[in-house]
Amino acid sequence: MDYSRGENLGRIYRILPKKVKDTIITPDLHSKTSTELVSLLADPNQWFRTQAHMLLIQRQDRSVIPLLNTMFETNADPRARIHSLYALDGLNELNSSMVFKAMKDPEPGLREQAAVLSERYPVLLPQLLEMINDPSVQVVLQATLSLGEFSDPRVNEAFAKVIEQHGMEPLFRTAVLSST
Which of 49, 109, 159, 162 is least enclosed, having the fewest CB within 10 Å? Predict the structure, then answer.
């Protein structure tokens, strides 16, 4: 096999099946309304979600706040709920009650992101302490990292429990040692 064959042809930017014609349309998301961008936060395509999220934050259009709240409360896709939480955060509309609700969500990825967001709300420390007992290891790791942002005697007790349960795993040891 000649591994250097094609070096003079440059990078491959797009690979398509032979049956598909080269008719991919790149959408102009800048021309979409903010309401349309909110609906794109639930799109299965990650590129659409991240671009819509970025544009919503850039625009700072506060008229979409009720739509984002509704998406967080009712959308079945956890990725859409995570994007709506962070979009609300970017619009300075996120509050501790929303983060609390996300901390109790059945989806581990959403609970993990809620642990990150809980670092800004000292009132959520008791719920964050409970998260070290979560069935998802990723949530426990993020809760341990987030607990490191607090200086409360209960945090040291939680760290001791984490080390008892997960002390053999290097990431957990690093998470405890990285705390203030």
Answer: 109
